[in-house]
Every structure is written in structure tokens, then in C-alpha cells.
Amino acid sequence: MTVCGITAEYNPFHTGHLHHIAETRRSLGENAVIVCVMSGNFVQRGDFAVLDKYARAEMAVRCGADLVVELPLAAALSSAEGFAKGAVQTLHALGCGMVSFGAETADADLLLQAAELLNSLPMEGESGSPHLSYAARRQEELAKVHKQAAALLDNPNNTLAVEYCRFLLPLGMRPLAVLRQGAAHDARAPHSGFASASLLRTHLRDGDFAFCAPFLPPAARAVWKKAADCGEAPVALPEDTLLALLRTALYQGRLRTGSADGFDERLRKAVYTAHSFSDAVEKARTRRFPAARVRRALLRAVLGVEADAPVSPAYLRVLALGVRGRAALRQAALPVIVKPATEKRLPANLQAALCRDAFADDLFALALPDPERRIGGGHFRKTPFCLR
């Protein structure tokens, strides 16, 4: 049985994602099992997802995926390196021998070469130009030994592809690079029948579903419409709640990342003087500290994700599955959670992380448009979508 993994956020699931799944299945054959590991209610940009994780996972399974499991929260709110490590290790625990990803280049050999070089370079983020971000300094170091490999990192999906390859290598897994089509990452206009997820999120949050509809597969449109009709979409940041939780973390001494570059002090000052979560982000961001890094750090503080929290999975939370997805679950190397109500029967050493997951879901509920759906405990009431 060929089991191939895909890492995604599906925020929201659009025609580009549909193309990626279709191309992966075309490359591997109709009998291949496609397993997705997906960010939950919080995403790598340091933001609330535009739609609940179960609904987004349902979109994926209705559009061709066989199984969707949740990426660990610490990985979802990490840099590209931590995000990729958590994703690859989750897919490995599900028996995936291959990982498929979209990239601006489909040259898997060059991506692997860049990954090998990054793994060999002794980069701890302290060398290079001090005014640059950590990611930019890594690219600077890589350019000293291989300019073509370093040029890959000019594009965000290539950057993630290289990170996936870094963690695939020691696990004996293979990459499958699918050339991205249409609109570029963060493009502000559609192109060739595709639109970027960021553009779609902007229109969805503005209530402009008509603009988005052509770029969402029919099954995804139906899931979105159902969620919107039920008062579950689109979500909006609970700015005051987040700032209150950040001030609590500040006064309790929990607003720290362990960074030695002045980042923590900048975060603390921003939170102390801000009038909202978004204002704190604006006050803390610089060229060296990009907004995404700031947002991730602030959300990690809100959610109690420590700086040294492991990104590797300790359990596998199922969000949606089809018939073939059940076969992949049978070979899982970690505890599998299908119904959250069973979590209390898992080992004691997992309970703190499970409680954090429940809190994260309750915080996400505060962003829902329907006040009646903001009550606590939703984590234990929701179950995976099953495609029969």
C-alpha cells in the first residue's frame, strides 16, 4: 500500500489544493492513500484559521484526501523549521513513505541538495548580518556555498519544501514535488483560475463570498456555506480577550521565547503599551522580527505553549477520514484520538498537552460570529467527519 503525506493548512481549501491532491494521485496511482496533516484552529502565520479545523478537514476529504490529522499545536505555531519537523514526523508515524508538497520548483534533486547543505551548515542564527531575520541569515549562509540552492529560499513554498526535505532525509522518506500553478503565494489578484489563500481569506472575512466561489471546489463551497449559515464563519480575532490574556502572561512572567536577540523585551513592551492584540503586533514588528514571528510568539504565550515545547507528535488527532484513511490509521505508531471524549483514558504524561488542545479550541470559539456558539467545551462535542 502506497501511503503519501501532504502538509497543509487549507485555510481555506481552494482549487490550488484540489490540483495538488489530484496531481499527487495521478503520480502515484488511484490506489494510493493520501494522508494530510493539517494545522488546527491556529495557523503558522500566527493567526486564527478562517474556519474551524473539522470543517476545513471535511473540505479536504470531500475533495480527494483519505485522512486528515491535526498538526501538533506547537508545530503549527512554529517557524518553517519547526512546522516542517512536526509535520514530517506526524506523517512518518502514520506510515507515509513519501511526502508530496507544492513548490515553485519541481526539481526534487535540487531541493534535497539544499536540504542536505542546510543540515550540514552550523547555523544557530547568531552569525551573519544582525539586522536580518533568522530566515534571511540562514539564506545568507547557504548562499556562501551554493547560490542556486540559496535562491530557492526566495520563494515561500520552496522554503517549506526544503524544510520538509531536511526532515525526510533521516527518516528514509521520499519527496514528491508538485509544481505550483496559478496565483503566487500572497498574490493580490487571481491568476489562471487560481487565487491565493490570503486573498480568499480577505474576501471571506469581508463577507464577499461571491468573489471566492469560483476559486473554491463545489464541495468546499458547500461546507463553507453550511458553516456560515450556522454562525461559525468567518472568524474574527477576539482582540480584547487576546490582549487580556497577554497582559496576564506578562505579569506572570510567561511572556518569553528564550530568544537572546532582544525579542522578548520588545514583546513585553509592545504588550504593555498596546490597545489591542493587533496593535501589539504592529508595535513589536521590525525587519528583523517579522509580523508572523511576532504573532506566533504572542499566540504561544496566550495558549501556554512554552518556548521548548516539542513539535513532534505524541498522539494523532483525527479530523476527517474516508474509507482508505482507516487503513492508514491501523498502522499508526502513536495513540490515535478519534473521539475526544476518550482522551482521559490516555496516559497521564499526555494530559497537559490534551488540556492545552481543549483550551485552544475554547479560545477559538470566542472568535465565532454567533455568540451562542462561543460556549466552552466544544472540544469534547465535535467528532471527525467520516466519508462513507
TrEMBL record:
Query: InterPro entries, alphabetically?
Result: Rossmann-like_a/b/a_fold, tRNA(Met)_cyd_acetate_ligase
EC numbers for this chain: 6.3.4.-
Q: Where in the cell is it found?
A: Cytoplasm
Q: What is its main location?
A: cytoplasm
- The organism's place on the tree of life at top rank: Bacteria
Q: What class of enzyme is it?
A: ligase
Catalysed reactions, semicolon-separated: cytidine(34) in elongator tRNA(Met) + acetate + ATP = N(4)-acetylcytidine(34) in elongator tRNA(Met) + AMP + diphosphate
Positions that bind ATP: 7-20, 102, 157, 180
Name the Gene3D superfamilies for this protein: HUPs (3.40.50.620)
Q: Which SUPFAM superfamilies match?
A: Nucleotidylyl transferase
Keywords tagged on the record: ATP-binding, Cytoplasm, Ligase, Nucleotide-binding, RNA-binding, tRNA processing, tRNA-binding
**Family label:** Belongs to the TmcAL family.
PANTHER family hit by this protein:
TRNA(MET) CYTIDINE ACETATE LIGASE (PTHR37825)
Its function, per the record, reads: Catalyzes the formation of N(4)-acetylcytidine (ac(4)C) at the wobble position of elongator tRNA(Met), using acetate and ATP as substrates. First activates an acetate ion to form acetyladenylate (Ac-AMP) and then transfers the acetyl group to tRNA to form ac(4)C34.
**Entries under HAMAP family matching the protein:** TmcAL
Q: What is this protein called?
A: tRNA(Met) cytidine acetate ligase
Q: Which organism is it from?
A: Butyricicoccus faecihominis
Classification lineage:
Bacteria, Bacillati, Bacillota, Clostridia, Eubacteriales
Which gene name does the record give?
tmcAL
